[in-house]
Amino acid sequence: MSEPVERPTIFERIAAREIPARIVAETDRVIAFHDIAPKAPVHVIVTPKSGDYRDVAALAAGDPGLLAEVVEVARGVASELGDGDYRLVFNTGPGGGQTVFHVHAHVLAGGLEEASLAGA
Ligand code: AMP
User: Fold this and answer.
1) What's the gap in Å between 84 CA and the centre of ligand 1?
2) In whole angstroms, what is the distance from residue 101 CA to residue 93 CA?
3) Residue nearest to atom 18 of ligand 1 (CA)
4) Residues with CB under 6 A from ligand 1
5) What is the topology classification, in CATH, of domain 10-111?
6) pLDDT along the chain (120 residues), means of 10
7) How far is the CA of 77 from the centre of ligand 1 (A)?
8) What is the pTM assigned to this prediction?
Protein backbone atom coordinates (compact mmCIF):
# COMPACT_ATOMS: atom_id res chain seq x y z
CA MET A 1 0.00 0.00 0.00
CA SER A 2 1.27 3.44 -0.92
CA GLU A 3 1.08 6.15 1.69
CA PRO A 4 -1.03 9.10 0.48
CA VAL A 5 1.12 12.12 -0.39
CA GLU A 6 -0.07 15.49 0.83
CA ARG A 7 0.94 18.37 -1.41
CA PRO A 8 2.79 20.54 -0.97
CA THR A 9 5.15 18.15 0.81
CA ILE A 10 7.34 19.38 3.65
CA PHE A 11 10.34 19.38 1.28
CA GLU A 12 8.41 21.38 -1.35
CA ARG A 13 7.68 23.91 1.40
CA ILE A 14 11.39 24.07 2.28
CA ALA A 15 12.24 24.62 -1.43
CA ALA A 16 9.63 27.43 -1.53
CA ARG A 17 11.18 28.99 1.62
CA GLU A 18 7.91 28.53 3.51
CA ILE A 19 9.71 26.42 6.13
CA PRO A 20 13.20 27.41 7.26
CA ALA A 21 16.09 25.05 6.65
CA ARG A 22 19.88 25.24 6.53
CA ILE A 23 20.24 25.08 2.75
CA VAL A 24 23.70 24.04 1.55
CA ALA A 25 23.25 23.66 -2.23
CA GLU A 26 20.66 24.34 -4.88
CA THR A 27 20.17 23.94 -8.64
CA ASP A 28 17.11 24.73 -10.75
CA ARG A 29 15.53 21.38 -9.87
CA VAL A 30 17.31 20.11 -6.75
CA ILE A 31 17.84 21.41 -3.22
CA ALA A 32 20.08 20.20 -0.37
CA PHE A 33 19.74 21.10 3.31
CA HIS A 34 20.92 19.83 6.69
CA ASP A 35 18.69 17.14 8.22
CA ILE A 36 16.86 18.48 11.27
CA ALA A 37 17.77 15.32 13.27
CA PRO A 38 21.30 14.43 12.12
CA LYS A 39 22.48 10.82 12.42
CA ALA A 40 26.09 11.55 11.41
CA PRO A 41 28.46 14.54 11.64
CA VAL A 42 27.40 15.43 8.08
CA HIS A 43 23.76 14.55 7.38
CA VAL A 44 22.23 16.39 4.45
CA ILE A 45 18.97 15.76 2.58
CA VAL A 46 19.18 16.10 -1.22
CA THR A 47 15.83 16.18 -2.98
CA PRO A 48 14.09 17.35 -6.15
CA LYS A 49 12.25 20.62 -5.51
CA SER A 50 9.11 18.99 -6.87
CA GLY A 51 7.39 16.24 -4.91
CA ASP A 52 6.15 14.50 -8.07
CA TYR A 53 8.08 11.31 -7.26
CA ARG A 54 7.51 9.52 -3.98
CA ASP A 55 10.62 7.33 -3.95
CA VAL A 56 13.84 6.57 -5.78
CA ALA A 57 12.36 3.80 -7.92
CA ALA A 58 9.60 6.11 -9.18
CA LEU A 59 12.18 8.82 -9.87
CA ALA A 60 14.48 6.42 -11.74
CA ALA A 61 11.58 5.26 -13.91
CA GLY A 62 10.07 8.71 -14.46
CA ASP A 63 13.04 11.06 -14.74
CA PRO A 64 16.46 9.36 -14.65
CA GLY A 65 18.18 12.64 -15.50
CA LEU A 66 16.77 14.21 -12.35
CA LEU A 67 18.00 11.24 -10.30
CA ALA A 68 21.48 11.78 -11.79
CA GLU A 69 21.23 15.44 -10.75
CA VAL A 70 20.36 14.43 -7.17
CA VAL A 71 23.41 12.14 -7.12
CA GLU A 72 25.66 14.88 -8.52
CA VAL A 73 24.47 17.42 -5.92
CA ALA A 74 25.05 14.79 -3.21
CA ARG A 75 28.61 14.25 -4.44
CA GLY A 76 29.27 17.99 -4.34
CA VAL A 77 27.84 18.34 -0.81
CA ALA A 78 29.99 15.46 0.45
CA SER A 79 33.13 16.99 -0.97
CA GLU A 80 32.29 20.47 0.38
CA LEU A 81 31.28 19.40 3.88
CA GLY A 82 33.32 16.21 4.31
CA ASP A 83 36.37 14.54 2.83
CA GLY A 84 34.53 13.34 -0.29
CA ASP A 85 33.64 9.85 0.97
CA TYR A 86 30.04 9.35 1.93
CA ARG A 87 27.05 7.04 2.20
CA LEU A 88 24.00 7.76 0.05
CA VAL A 89 20.76 6.33 1.47
CA PHE A 90 17.30 6.30 -0.09
CA ASN A 91 14.89 4.90 2.49
CA THR A 92 12.07 3.39 0.45
CA GLY A 93 8.63 2.62 1.87
CA PRO A 94 7.56 2.68 5.51
CA GLY A 95 9.28 -0.66 6.16
CA GLY A 96 12.48 0.84 4.75
CA GLY A 97 12.32 3.74 7.19
CA GLN A 98 10.81 6.27 4.79
CA THR A 99 8.70 8.88 6.58
CA VAL A 100 8.58 11.68 3.98
CA PHE A 101 7.04 10.43 0.73
CA HIS A 102 8.87 12.88 -1.51
CA VAL A 103 11.99 11.20 -2.89
CA HIS A 104 15.18 12.25 -1.13
CA ALA A 105 18.71 11.05 -0.56
CA HIS A 106 20.46 11.14 2.80
CA VAL A 107 24.11 12.13 2.44
CA LEU A 108 25.94 10.76 5.49
CA ALA A 109 29.60 11.49 6.06
CA GLY A 110 32.10 11.54 8.90
CA GLY A 111 32.04 9.10 11.82
CA LEU A 112 29.99 6.59 9.86
CA GLU A 113 30.96 3.68 12.07
CA GLU A 114 28.57 5.27 14.58
CA ALA A 115 25.80 6.10 12.11
CA SER A 116 22.96 3.60 12.10
CA LEU A 117 21.37 2.75 8.76
CA ALA A 118 17.99 2.43 10.46
CA GLY A 119 16.36 5.82 10.64
CA ALA A 120 19.11 7.44 8.55
P1 AMP B 1 13.04 9.49 5.73
O2 AMP B 1 12.76 8.92 7.09
O3 AMP B 1 14.06 8.70 4.92
O4 AMP B 1 11.76 9.73 4.95
O5 AMP B 1 13.76 10.86 5.95
C6 AMP B 1 13.10 12.04 6.29
C7 AMP B 1 14.14 12.90 6.93
O8 AMP B 1 13.71 14.25 6.85
C9 AMP B 1 14.40 12.59 8.40
O10 AMP B 1 15.79 12.27 8.57
C11 AMP B 1 14.01 13.88 9.12
O12 AMP B 1 14.86 14.18 10.22
C13 AMP B 1 14.15 14.91 8.00
N14 AMP B 1 13.31 16.09 8.17
C15 AMP B 1 11.99 16.12 8.45
N16 AMP B 1 11.57 17.40 8.52
C17 AMP B 1 12.64 18.18 8.28
C18 AMP B 1 12.85 19.59 8.22
N19 AMP B 1 11.86 20.47 8.43
N20 AMP B 1 14.10 20.05 7.94
C21 AMP B 1 15.11 19.18 7.75
N22 AMP B 1 14.99 17.84 7.78
C23 AMP B 1 13.77 17.34 8.06
Assistant:
1) 22
2) 8
3) 36
4) 10, 19, 21, 33, 35-37, 45, 91, 97-100
5) HIT family, subunit A (3.30.428)
6) 82 98 98 97 98 98 98 97 95 97 97 62
7) 17
8) 0.94
